[in-house]
Amino acid sequence: xxxxxxxxxxxxxxxxxxxxxxxxxxxxxxxxxxxxxxxxxxxxxxxxxxxxxxxxxxxxxxxxxxxxxxxxxxxxxxxxxxxxxxxxxxxxxxxxxxxxxxxxxxxxxxxxxxxxxxxxxxxxxxxxxxxxxxxxxxxxxxxxxxxxxxxxxxxxxxxxxxxxxxxxxxxxxxxxxxxxxxxxxxxxxxxxxxxxxxxxxxxxxxxxxxxxxxxxxxxxxxxxxxxxxxxxxxxxxxxxxxxxxxxxxxxxxxxxxxxxxxxxxxxxxxxxxxxxxxxxxxxxxxxxxxxxxxxxxxxxxxxxxxxxxxxxxxxxxxxxxxxxxxxxxxxxxxxxxxxxxxxxxxxxxxxxxxxxxxxxxxxxxxxxxxxxxxxxxxxxxxxxxxxxxxxxxxxxxxxxxxxxxxxxxxxxxxxxxxxxxxxxxxxxxxxxxxxxxxxxxxxxxxxxxxxxxxxxxxxxxxxxxxxxxxxxxxxxxxxxxxxxxxxxxxxxxxxxxxxxxxxxxxxxxxxxxxxxxxxxxxxxxxxxxxxxxxxxxxxxxxxxxxxxxxxxxxxxxxxxxxxxxxxxxxxxxxxxxxxxxxxxxxxxxxxxxxxxxxxxxxxxxxxxxxxxxxxxxxxxxxxxxxxxxxxxxxxxxxxxxxxxxxxxxxxxxxxxx
Length: 657
Prior knowledge:
mainly beta, six-stranded mixed sheet
């Protein structure tokens, strides 16, 4: 940018010019979408506030999403949304269903944080376009794209627990229309961690390599996106060598090989009315070879998915979307256990093909009133024909206030061995009933405010969601102390959540966010309707973020208060006596902080997680006897490691950070 120095006396107008001036605007790290669905987009600005090594570590500053460990032996993690397990959240990669079956327990670690461009979190029953599986919401990961600004980035990371990571991405514009991109990731654990001296590793040793190659062609009437991805992971855990008795070490190992391919074709028939036809398809092969002590589980899981879509805007106010879809899950499982350790009519995952059709109509009256009504019908080779209705409303009487309401139904097919294979680490026997299709209604409402106060906008949000199950797969620890019983719901099950959050920029570059959520989640277990075990009754969140005026330094602090909850009862029985454990777990806080120094072509960040050091003191029950029936590592309610420090560097080559 060049400007004449017109205010300099005795100088010709063209003799003095200013150096190049770059004016930048840093977008908000999170923002609520303007449509009728209750959805929030988390951008890279928000992800940079923490290390965000993978998807599971990307919700630190998010008040709606919780990420907890499922067990203390394998490092399996799960999302919780609206107080319910992440199995009820539909996982998407750029609007395509992904990470199903055996990938569910570990999928949060399969998606490197530096690869992500944004994360879209939708609450409640979402659009019928993406299928019928969204019950509590959707999480859609958008990756860096080949058509983005050309260049490369390298991210190096290490922490005090001995974990190192290297991430790299690079894209090239081969022509004005053809672009390609390569993403690469490597991580490795270098230390044994046993902070509570129970003889078991606090975190597994993980060696992971993953890569993607993505392509796109951006034509005037035709757009193509496609790519290939692979992942190779070796996860080792169990007893430390010093703790093993007589050389008989309780060892846990999971070897995963995953291959993916996808393509998207879009044909524009009438750009003025947004009329287009799109075809999306993906294929996945997921191989897992796992052993838990003397138990072994292997799967060779295949998934094929395709969707044909048509969209058009008749007028400014009327939009129609319709389409056909097909999904094929083909698990090929083997397991080896001692007699009586795993049995029941549902102990074999089943092949399922589901084909469906949908239509969705949207009425938009100048963004004041928006009505989106959708319905789809699907036929499953296992469960027959079922119908999924969904309705979303938005009313914005002013630019400062918006109200949303939603109601819809969702369905899920449970593949119990694939989704809950980490339960095989338990010493208990596992009984799996023949499982029906899960079905639930979700209803919710929210109201958002943007209030001008002292020249700045205070943003506030209030929301309530209610999820009611017609049928649910229940993982029941309470029917028998020596059994984990996976069965169909035998009574009521529901979740009620209320959340309030507010954010305000106190000073230029300094923003505070506070949130509170209350969960009331109950399920019928052992014939009694009771509070769902291992579920926090409430969550409080406070974040402070400050970026200096020139954008050189950034300081981020997050404090979480996680409410207590109920533990399964009865506990394990040892020699006829109940194991001496409490019936509830207490509230605990977690403090995370990070400092980032920005330079022209790179940035350096240092930080810490769980700086309060709060942890579950004995996440593994009866760790001294891992070969016994009373060994139990799957009842985890809090952090399994203490305070952790980390540092990293992001290097930018030819592109803006």
